[in-house]
Amino acid sequence: MTTTTGRRVHPDLAHHHPRVTRLPHGGWTWGCDCGGASARSVVARLTWHQAYVGALIHSASIAP
Ligand SMILES: [Zn+2]
């Protein structure tokens, strides 16, 4: 049996700076310079916290 490392650590391979913005219709979204953003086809509006968490998850991910 082999052991695979589930965690990939790539320090400073990519920097993400997602920003949480408020939509004119209400609700919040986040977007990043790399093109990442919260799902466009979201029917339910995100709360600020949901958008913030989404941005945090994105900022923790590494761009391909
Ligand atoms: Zn990004």
Automatic annotation (TrEMBL):
Q: Which domain of life is it from?
A: Bacteria
Protein name in UniProt:
Uncharacterized protein
Organism field:
Terrabacter aerolatus
